Amino acid sequence: MVLIVTPLRLLPEVMARRSPSHLITLLSPEELIETPAGFDPARHLRLGLHDIAEPQAGMVAPEARQVEQVLAFAQGWDGAAPMVVHCWAGISRSTASAFAIACERSPHADELEIALAMRRASPTAFPNRRIVALADDILDRQGRMVEAVEAMGGNGFALEGVPFELAARR
Fold it and tell me: In the chain, which end has fewer C-beta atoms inside a 10 angstrom radius, N or C?
């Protein structure tokens, strides 16, 4: 079971090369993309939210219902083919969502091990702290997910990530 995280710019290439069965799009509401041609819309979760850690006027902050949608959508994925998760840069919203899915699929795994696996796979990953905190509450991880992503450290202020894989066990 492999999650692939990518920035929007490289999505067509990743889709063509990896033939995923499921796709999660996390973009601001005004930038949401349509389902790629030839891809089953029922296997494409499209969420409009901004990459912010605190609510701001005129912006859509990540909320628990959106994190619950990500986790519920991932439960319909059997893992036979990869799932692609993307946001604008492939750094924050997508990495937070992939981390949440990986934690949900590995309920007894150490959150820090999952976070460090993400860091090894991507030096640019910087999971959105609000999404992680919401997922931590939903999954009843008692702050361990938040602590794990904090332990990952920074990302050197990268502007765009490089596609990477993260294992998602069940």
Answer: C
